[in-house]
Design goal:
The protein has 479 residues and is an alpha/beta fold. It has four domains: 136 residues, no CATH class; 70 residues, no CATH class; 128 residues, Alpha-Beta Plaits; 42 residues, no CATH class. It contains 13 helices and 21 strands. A hairpin with a 3-residue loop joins strand 18 and strand 19. The longest helix is centred in the last third of the chain and has 30 residues. It is elongated and about 110 Å long. The two termini are 61 Å apart. The structure holds 2-acetamido-2-deoxy-beta-D-glucopyranose. 2-acetamido-2-deoxy-beta-D-glucopyranose (NAG) binds next to loops.
């Protein structure tokens, strides 16, 4: 099964671009029983009450019998075609004794709550419920994502943020897709727009999509505090919990870090991993999230030197992380076997059992870099000493400084010992064969990753549709 990478690359033709669709989950629909304080949609014997001060936009899909209805001071019903209300005279036999039921004053439903979004690679997957797992920061829409509010739905979202605006690529509301900044800000000014979106900052549409086939950094870390503020972490039940980049909680599972070349294609690779592994029965309960993140880099494990873009694969199995670790090893093995085709130059993984890989290409590259650095330093010192010794370079003489007597003595010692002329250690400094060797890194740029690139350019022409039904049929009145 692991020997069919090319066939799998072809499968990627089905994919879309490397941005995701993020769909808002809660709604303010009349038919959703979770919106009623009795947990049931009111029927013919019930009195329906909307809290007076709750400004809400309610979507109504069909007709409903009511006994009595108390409306809020401000709000709207968005009626599907054929939807409406009627009053039953006498008792409705299909309805219970009759209660007063109230439309719930929703708890704060914040844009930056990662639990309120679901992500998918395309609209089709969104509709079919093929959702993707993401770390918390990326569960909330990234700047290059398409945001979807369900077509037959209204909602109310609090867009308060510490930034003045929330940039996204596009927003779909009631089946209409807004892609231009001015058009959407016009919508925000309408009655529906004002009831649906409230809060200190405005969602702005028209942010560029992710053009980099290897993926883009989500860019939500500026809102990390707000995002993690609405997350409650379960206490992890494993030896060495891991904290993935962009996640709010320690988790049990495994993290694979991939170092990539220009030919790497995130969308293609995501599909490859899905087809190769996630369809296997033993990985049925696995949650896997894959994205480009900026990972702080440390020289020799402790000296920080900036950050670099890597592909982070977060694998959770909902248990102690044993299955996750097994999958991490499989992915690691696959990356080594087919790395040159996939544009992967190195990989490493950590598991919450405490085990990790360290003999990866990227780590090796770091080590090689460090070794080179040390060798160059050593060579410089040796060359300097050699030149000084040969008299080509003169050390500044410091006769007036009795505190440094070691310099002349070192000189005379060297001369006397006769190690000088072209002694062993000096030769090593010049002739170290490592300097002439090609880099130890695998040559990845020339690999045949072009197949992946051309497939993504096909897929980037993507298939999405705007449902025209609701524009035409929707009627709306304000109560
Ligand atoms: C009803 O609302 C809840 C919470 O907002 C949501 O999770 C659920 O999907 C909605 N039900 C339907 C049928 O849309």
């Amino acid at each position: 099964m692991l020997r069919t990478p090319d066939a799998l690359l072809l499968l990627s033709l089905v994919g879309a671009a490397n941005a995701l669709y993020k769909q808002w989950i809660p709604d303010t629909n009349y038919e959703n029983q979770t919106n009623w304080d009795h947990g049931a949609v009111p029927c013919g014997n019930d009195k329906v009450k909307f809290p007076a001060l709750r400004k809400v936009s309610v979507f109504v899909e069909t007709t409903h019998a009511v006994q009595e209805m108390i409306l809020p001071v401000d709000g709207e019903f968005i009626l599907n075609s054929g939807a409406g209300f009627y009053v039953v005279s006498g008792q409705d036999p299909d309805c219970g004794a009759g209660v007063t039921t109230q439309f719930k004053d929703s708890e704060s439903v914040e844009w930056f709550n990662p639990a309120l979004w679901q992500a998918a690679a395309n609209l089709d997957d969104l509709q079919r419920g093929n959702f993707l797992f993401s770390v918390h920061e990326e569960s909330v829409p990234c700047g290059y994502d398409d945001v979807v509010f369900k077509a037959r739905s209204s909602f109310k979202v609090d867009t308060s943020s510490s930034e003045s605006s929330i940039p996204v690529k596009s927003v779909s509301v009631l089946g209409k897709k807004f892609e231009s900044r001015s058009e959407f800000s016009e919508y925000l000014g309408t009655r529906s727009g004002q009831l649906q979106f409230h809060g200190s900052s405005a969602v702005t549409v028209g942010h560029p999509g992710c053009e980099d086939p290897s993926g883009c950094d989500c860019g939500n870390s500026a809102n990390r505090e707000r995002i993690c503020g609405s997350v409650t972490c379960a206490s992890p039940n494993c030896r060495k919990p891991l904290l993935p980049e962009g996640h709010c909680c320690d988790v049990c599972g495994a993290i694979v870090t991939l170092y990539t070349a220009a030919s790497f294609n995130l969308q293609t690779y995501r599909q490859r991993i899905h087809h190769l592994f996630l369809t296997l029965p033993q990985y049925k309960s696995i949650q896997l999230g894959m994205s480009k993140v900026f990972k702080p880099q440390r020289l020799m494990g402790f000296i920080p030197f900036g950050s670099s873009a890597v592909i982070q694969v977060v694998i959770l199995d909902g248990e102690e992380g044993k299955q996750a670790e097994r999958l991490a090893r499989d992915i690691s093995k696959d990356a080594r076997a087919h790395g040159s085709n996939l544009g992967i130059t190195g990989d490493e993984f950590q598991a919450s059992s405490g085990s990790s890989s360290d003999q990866s290409g990227a780590k090796a590259a770091t080590v090689v870099g460090v070794v080179f650095g040390v060798l160059i330093m050593a060579a410089l010192i040796v060359v300097t000493v050699f030149l000084v010794h040969k008299g080509v370079v003169r050390m500044p003489s410091m006769p007036s400084m009795p505190s440094m007597p070691s310099l002349p003595s070192l000189r005379s010692l060297k001369r006397d010992s006769g190690v000088g002329e072209l002694g062993g250690p000096l030769d090593h400094g010049f002739d170290n064969p490592m300097f002439d060797q090609p880099n130890a890194l695998p040559d990845v740029l020339g690999s045949n990753g072009t197949g992946a690139n051309s497939s993504i350019s096909l897929t980037q022409s993507g298939v999405y549709f705007v449902n025209p039904v609701y524009d035409d049929n929707e009627t709306e009145f304000s109560a």
